[in-house]
Amino acid sequence: MTPVEESLLAEPRAPAGLPAYAMELRRKGRETFRGLGLPSPRLEEWRFTSLAGLAAERFTFGDPAAPLGAAELERLAGRRLGPRLVFVNGRLRADLSDSAGLPAGAFAGSLGRALEEQPALLEPHLGRLASPPGLALSALNAALLADGAFVHLPEGCRAAEPVELVFVTAGGSLATASPFRVLVVAGPGSEATVVERHAARGTATVLTNGVTEVVLAAGARLDHYVVQNQPANAYHFASLFAEAERDASFHTHATALGAALSRSDVRVRLAGEGAEAKIVGLYMADGKRLVDNHSLVEHARPHGTSREVFKGVLDGESRAVFGGRIRVLEGAMKTDAHQMNSNLLLSRDATVDTMPQLEIYADDVKCGHGGTVGQLDPDSLFYLRSRGLPLARARSLLIYAFAREMVELVRPKALRDEVGKLVAARLPDGTRVLEAA
Amino acid sequence: MSPREQENQPILAVEGLRARIGDREILKGLSLTVNAGQVHAIMGPNGSGKSTLAGVLAGRETAEVTAGTARLDGRDLFPLSPEERSIAGLFLGFQYPVEIPGVGNLYFLRTALNAQRKARGEEEIDAVDFLDFAKEKMKSVEMDPAFMSRGLNEGFSGGEKKRNEVLQMAVLEPRLAILDEIDSGLDIDALRVVAKGVEALRSPTRSTILVTHYQRLLEYVVPDVVHVMAAGRIVLSGGRELALELEKKGYAWIDEEAKRGAFAEPAQVSP
Fold first, then answer.
1. Which CATH number fits the domain that encloses residue B212?
2. How far is CA B235 from CA A398, B226, B228, B231, B257, in A?
């Protein structure tokens, strides 16, 4: 173990009151992370993403009781969209949260408390999807398991308003690490929208490493959104695992705008016949930032459908990595899977490494992938400028037009407007491009 | 200057213009003067440099200007960016208008107009007032207002795109409009609408250049002067009858003559 790895495991105090299986997850996580250490570019999945920049850091654990005012919270996480749980350095903060608006029978609250109070409900699910061998970051997260968000929707429950999970890493003048953990259990035929927001403060490096597990029973439908708006001194690691039973539908939509380095791993397993998944990602980077999206969609049963669309806008010397794998297991006939990664490069020095991979072990399937790496179209730029639009406006309009398709896929209007604004705010003349829509 | 005085003043004065694309020289010492109130037609065989001329004047970067000057109302165009040329009053109607999904047509029109108004120190027009103004203009080009809610030229047919060019021209009211093959691929109805749009802008203080391969458009818009381009220069200038002659004889003889060096000095026929 290197000193930085040691520092990531050195939590100040272990949680009390967790059931034995949770303590066992922690123990295994620690053991696995000790064995693997932080991922290195020697691993195929990390070929283009080096964490060498972390070597000099020594992380402390952020104080979960750190003061956080309402105004700062709004600046970091936008306006409340619905029932909202706020986590500071990984722990639920009742003083900042307001879960009003949840439908009867549904639960959204502290994972730590749920583990203490209803351990039997969580036992079949917690850590089940997030424990495949070889995943160091998931193991690190498990090693520190203490709190997080637990969302439970009983059979047939429909939540009208989006459930918001806000994770703030509150750092300071010392490098600060904080975990986040989410477990969503969606009962048969239930429907809900869950929004994860990630932000941080602090002058020194901040590191966020989280795991989200989503379990969808037959016919359940979950729309999952991520708004990652970390500051430029942040490392952001997020691992999302979802499993969809028969006719269940899982949509995840991530907008990655910030962080010096962000890595998202999405693993979706279509475990039941006719299950459907949609994985959408929009990322923007500039300077020397790096944004890495990896995904694995596994079709295990017949008649599954999956759609994956990732779009990126890269400026400066930024880099994007996309690794998308579709795996169709034996017997998953009539699978319909498609994957797309498009990138818009705004500078000569921005780079993209994109690696689509298909692994097909079944007959009678429809699978495809595609990708583009391009620049702003000079003819379009000239057309707009020839009508008197200044260069900055013309560029902003074209960039926004490229990203807009992703923004439009956000279903709750308030969130769609907000994501649109966040995207526009990153453009040279962005404040005015929104009217274009 | 009063409109009366502006008449017969050159709006556009091009002298000795040379431009190349890569290693190939396309414009080889072209000169052209367009006075206020005039409609000029520039005709010529494919590859004679007509579209390059239109592009170079509007600031398209595909061709590089190596010599000569172009002045709009006495102001040197070449140091100006495309947007500055537009604000100075130049409008290029595109041969192939670009489709830009994600940028709304109506928004684009209003932004374009406001960019010009702002540069002239005028108040920007808001979305509500603009809608009324735009509806009037759309009527004049017989365009279905439903098109305005689409992306810019998104899914438009060839004719619809050209109508949209004329609509933009009608909204921006340029001092000099250069319409590059605005008639290509148009049916008679669309051609009539385009011609009406050009005629509507005919005024003693404006001028228009129609770049075209065919005489057909000139049946609807009668030009004051017709120029013939060959091998990067204007080789013949005359009145409307020149267009008719070209229609009858085709362009082959122009190329032949040009090859023989018959047009060493541009032939001038006063309009």
1. 3.40.50.300
2. 41, 11, 6, 9, 10
